[in-house]
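Run SDR family oxidoreductase through structure prediction, thanks.
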Amino acid sequence: MSKLDFQNAFSLKGETALITGGGSGLGLAMATSFCAAGAQVILVGRREQVVKNAATSLGPNAFAIAHDISECERASELMEKAEEVSGSKPSILVNNAGIHLKKLATETNPSEFEAVIQTHVIAAHSLVQAALPAMLEKQHGSILFMASMTSYIGMPKVVAYSAAKSAYVGMVRTLTSEVAEHGVRVNGIAPGWIQSPMLDQALGNDTVRRQKILSRTPMGKFGEPDDIGLAAVYLCSPAAKFVSGVVLPIDGGASIGF
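Sure, done. The structure for SDR family oxidoreductase is below.
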């Protein structure tokens, strides 16, 4: 591969990425990396000022839309708004938005469980359904799901979250089997424990849980947000043109640690 080809292999120039939960945490980290790789990014979140501030910080190729993805009947409306603000239909969809619930299974009631599934799984499907037609028409696109260590290993007090993130693995595989031949790739990332507001919320002041995580992570440390951003760029770039149906752990070895 020539030097020029290598540089272009990781470029997202000409792509428009819609990132749910894009105003903070890992969503913003991915948006930052996507912008650096040349893409336009559309940050979607419920907190209007948060996504607006984040878009402003990223510059003229970033746009903000205040939207609640759990309102699944409005998924098509979101795609129309995305095209309106950016001038392009999304060619990359990142299903990143989610909510966390830390409770024992015996204390998690059906409505709480349903709320987690609604935000992570049902909403993500509605966005895929709304974004796919344009991708299939162009025979080009990339869909990325943010899975989790709980997709693969058992952890206490996250039964609803684990169920939702495990569902992402099945969605990645099924969607790939349906759309890969039409030029649309579907992959996932399973972040390990990455420094973020979500991690702080999950761990709180639980020192024992924090030490247990670090002790089973071969690298012995938490990851950084740009570890996820750079992996997302790879999976959505021409460098990964023959990669689909993969859920890539970015975890410092935690998923295979002892």
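The first strand starts at residue 16 and ends at 20.
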